[in-house]
């Protein structure tokens, strides 16, 4: 089981792979419409869509990657925590008149606490009994079902959203797109300040996580636990504490992604997480299980596949294309683009 | 002393109750709707007559189903209070049909087990295609069980009658609906839009994994073709999608005079916001029946002003009400605190149509109810004068509407100019 946490391959190699993948896909994307006799209209607008939806996918998928890297198991309740993050944000505005600005930290805190609760209820008891990882996987699936049912009970099933009236109070008419034209490059695209904010927040959180894991003592402790729990114990590292911290961080990322999603799309339901779950899993397998940079690359790639299918006139292929890519990756590079095959390292 | 007081109290209660019982025997206040004169008061009906209500009370379609359930319950209360079924009481047996074919099948299975005289519902067309045969399909026919009439009140997919007749023979006749199929609403709406706005090209977006939206797409295409309107772009998406920006980017880049959208309610709000606020499209958006969902244009939960310029055909409009409709909508708002929408009006009408069939048949037997149901003609309802035509299709006058600031206005040159500013 690959229990490496980030840097599964060297920095240089990962940048190389990333660049190669992006160039390859770029070339293919450029040539394919000609080959198929199709025309991509307004490609720069499609690229804008890829960047901002991809950033939300990446942020969401990081939680999966983080837990997998430390525990070597997938937490399938992550999508439900994401959905709850969205509801914490939306409901704190609707029910308690809390300004939208505070919803992000609130949802991160709420998501983090739910993540810890999931660990205490669904994972920790099984870990204590040395239960196989498949049991933990199934247990997390159960936790997901419970969280979705609780949301149904509390919020109903009609789509909820941040009230338009509240969104309109945001500065710079945040929900209204501006048109940007770069004459020298012949580019013309529209983006809302809110979408720009979503991209900035998502990437900032991803960089923060990367910094935490790679540069801090806590991050080192996490990497030791990921390498070997017994060694971590010998080094007086609180393994249980690291597990809970991991779940808190993953939950906080899910909470943040949930709020950003709810800000972007006016249709939050208790089942919102289900579709994201599938996307998130595709993202981390594409990028490389347990790799932070892999999750970022995977998120952008999944968004790119979805958008590109539509851009070249095959919108019916939109949901299938990421899975075709997933299939190819599993066939030719099962460890994912930036993952490393079955090598344990600290 | 105590027994004297008790006696006085008893006399007082009896005196007070006297006028009430007289009024109840008289049938209470008579609603404006009902075949009071064309069918005599039933004499054979007694006890409870059960009718199944199978609307979406959960998941995505609950956005329609909750108001349907409320309207049907209000109709049943009126029917019983007015003594419309003589000595019998109409009893609603309610099952949550959810929003998927599977949940609707489960609801229908429970309802036919309750020996209901008819079933009203389910909410979505694709649910109806899967669940309605539980009431009249091959399995029931083979078992020799009585077939149960099903009355759709919001199923608007084209060709349901012929599909059921082809698959289940005479059993297929047990399907009736008061909701106009898209084949009757869309052509009229498109013709008015072309006439009033002078549209020559359109881009079309539709959900291709839902029977209702896909059948509406077919009707749109043939209506547009008949009117000589060019389709310059076609894009699809799946029910449950939330991001339509890439499809809209393609369509807007093709520069059509209008965008035609066939989608369910849950997809409509994000689609409208993305088209208007994010991608800056300001032209007309012509929608299928999903755009009649309540709240689409509300400022808080809906698309607000981003819904301005949406044109949708419908069965009913608040701006074109008869006195039966006004009486219902007033009562509905008093009862539930929210304005009635088209789905509520249709559910109310459907419940009264069923009750009228029971009254006119003077029987709760499903086969008798069906016979009376099929004979429904010139019945005054909130939707207008309602009949089933010779093919069993519902008939009443549809209405084309345009959304402006949350209101569904009748589509006219003036209202269009008001919205598009020319």
Summarize the structure in words.
The complex is a heterodimer of chains A (346) and B (422). Chain A is mainly alpha-helical. Chain A has a domain at 47-281. Chain A contains 13 helices and two strands, in the order ααααααββααααααα. In chain A, strands 1-2 form a two-stranded antiparallel sheet. In chain A, β1 and β2 form a beta hairpin. In chain A, 51% of the residues are buried. The model of chain A has no long low-confidence stretch (mean pLDDT 87). With 422 residues, chain B is α/β, with parallel strands linked by helices. Chain B is built from 15 helices and 15 strands. Chain B has helices at 2-25, 62-81, 101-112, 125-131, 133-136, 138-143, 160-168, 182-197, 211-226, 245-253, 265-278, 323-336, 342-361, 366-374, 413-420, and strands spanning 46-53, 87-94, 118-120, 150-152, 175-177, 201-207, 230-237, 258-262, 285-287, 310-314, 379-381, 384-388, 394-395, 399-404, 407-410. In chain B, β4 (150-152), α7 (160-168) and β5 form a beta-alpha-beta unit. In chain B, α2 (62-81) runs parallel beside α13 (342-361) and α8 packs across α9. Chain B is globular.
In short:
The complex is a heterodimer of chains A (346) and B (422). With 346 residues, chain A is mainly α.
How many domain regions of chain B? Answer: 2
Physical arrangement of strands within the biggest beta sheet of chain A = 1-2
The CATH topology name of the largest domain in chain B reads Rossmann fold
Sequence stretches where pLDDT stays below 50 over 5 or more residues of chain B: 10-27
Q: How many beta-strand elements of chain B?
A: 15
Please give the CATH architecture of the largest domain in chain B.
Answer: 3-Layer(aba) Sandwich
Give the CATH superfamily of the largest domain in chain B. Response regulator
Largest beta-sheet characterization of chain A: 2 strands, antiparallel
């Amino acid at each position: 089981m690959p229990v490496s946490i980030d840097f599964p391959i060297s920095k240089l190699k990962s940048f190389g792979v990333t660049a190669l993948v992006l160039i390859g896909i770029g070339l293919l994307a450029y040539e394919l419409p000609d080959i198929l006799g199709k025309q991509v209209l307004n490609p720069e607008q499609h690229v804008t869509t890829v960047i901002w939806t991809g950033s939300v996918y990446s942020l969401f998928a990081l939680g999966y990657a983080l837990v997998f890297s430390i525990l070597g198991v997938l937490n399938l309740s992550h999508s439900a925590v994401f959905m709850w993050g969205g509801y914490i944000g939306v409901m704190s505005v609707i029910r308690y008149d809390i300004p939208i600005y505070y919803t992000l930290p609130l949802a991160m805190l709420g998501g983090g606490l739910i993540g810890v609760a999931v660990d205490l209820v669904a994972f920790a008891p099984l870990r204590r009994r040395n239960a196989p990882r498949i049991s933990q996987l199934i247990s997390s699936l159960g936790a997901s079902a419970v969280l979705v049912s609780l949301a149904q009970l509390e919020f109903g099933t009609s789509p909820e959203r941040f009230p338009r009236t509240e969104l309109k109070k945001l500065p710079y008419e945040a929900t209204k797109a501006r048109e940007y034209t770069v004459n020298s490059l012949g580019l013309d695209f529209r983006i809302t300040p809110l979408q720009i904010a979503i991209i900035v927040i998502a990437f900032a959180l991803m960089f923060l996580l990367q910094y935490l894991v790679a540069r801090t003592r806590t991050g080192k402790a996490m990497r030791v636990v990921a390498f070997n729990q017994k060694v971590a114990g010998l080094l007086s590292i609180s393994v249980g504490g690291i597990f809970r911290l991991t779940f808190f961080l993953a939950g906080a990322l899910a909470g943040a992604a949930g709020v950003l999603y709810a800000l972007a799309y006016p249709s939050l339901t208790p089942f919102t997480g289900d579709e994201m779950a599938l996307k998130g899993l595709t993202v981390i397998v594409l990028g490389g299980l347990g790799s932070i940079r892999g999750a970022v690359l995977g998120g952008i790639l999944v968004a790119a596949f979805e958008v590109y299918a539509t851009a070249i006139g095959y919108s019916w292929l939109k949901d299938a294309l990421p899975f075709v890519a997933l299939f190819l990756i599993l066939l030719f590079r099962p460890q994912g683009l930036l993952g490393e095959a079955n090598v344990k390292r600290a | 002393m105590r027994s004297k007081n008790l006696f006085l109290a008893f006399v007082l209660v009896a005196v007070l109750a006297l006028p009430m019982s007289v009024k109840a025997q008289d049938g209470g206040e008579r609603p404006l709707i009902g075949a009071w004169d064309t069918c005599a008061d039933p004499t054979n009906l007694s006890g409870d007559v059960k009718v199944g209500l199978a609307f979406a009370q959960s998941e995505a379609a609950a956005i329609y189903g909750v108001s349907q359930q409320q309207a049907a319950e209000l109709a049943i209360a009126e029917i019983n209070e007015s003594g419309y079924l003589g000595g019998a009481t109409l009893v609603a047996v309610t099952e949550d049909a959810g929003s998927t074919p599977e949940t609707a099948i489960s609801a229908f299975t429970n309802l036919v087990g309750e020996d209901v005289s008819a079933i009203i519902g389910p909410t979505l067309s694709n649910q109806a295609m899967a669940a309605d045969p539980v009431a009249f399909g091959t399995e029931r026919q083979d078992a020799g069980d009585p077939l149960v009439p099903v009355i759709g009140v919001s199923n608007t997919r084209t060709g349901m009658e012929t599909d059921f007749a082809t698959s289940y023979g005479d059993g297929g006749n047990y399907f009736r609906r008061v909701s106009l199929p898209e084949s009757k609403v869309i052509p009229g709406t498109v013709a008015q839009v072309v006439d009033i706005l002078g549209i020559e090209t359109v881009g079309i977006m539709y959900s291709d994994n839902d029977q209702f939206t896909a059948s509406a797409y077919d009707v749109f295409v043939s209506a547009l073709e008949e009117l000589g309107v060019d389709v310059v772009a076609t894009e699809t998406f799946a029910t449950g999608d939330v991001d339509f920006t890439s499809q809209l980017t393609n369509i807007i880049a093709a520069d059509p005079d209008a965008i035609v959208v066939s989608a369910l309610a849950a997809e409509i709000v994000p689609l409208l916001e993305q088209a208007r606020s994010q991608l800056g499209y300001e032209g007309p958006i012509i929608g299928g029946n999903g755009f009649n969902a309540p709240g689409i244009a509300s400022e808080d939960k809906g698309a607000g002003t981003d819904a301005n310029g949406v044109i949708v055909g419908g069965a009913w409009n608040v701006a074109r009400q008869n006195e039966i409709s006004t009486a219902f909508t007033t009562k509905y708002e008093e009862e539930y605190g929210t304005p009635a929408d088209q789905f509520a009006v249709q559910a109310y009408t459907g419940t009264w149509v069923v009750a009228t069939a029971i009254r006119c048949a003077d029987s709760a037997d499903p086969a008798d109810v069906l016979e009376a149901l099929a004979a429904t003609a010139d019945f005054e309802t909130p939707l207008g004068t309602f009949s089933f035509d010779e093919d069993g299709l519902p008939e009443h006058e549809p209405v084309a509407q345009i959304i402006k600031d949350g209101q569904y206005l009748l589509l006219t040159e003036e209202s269009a100019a008001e919205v598009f500013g020319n």
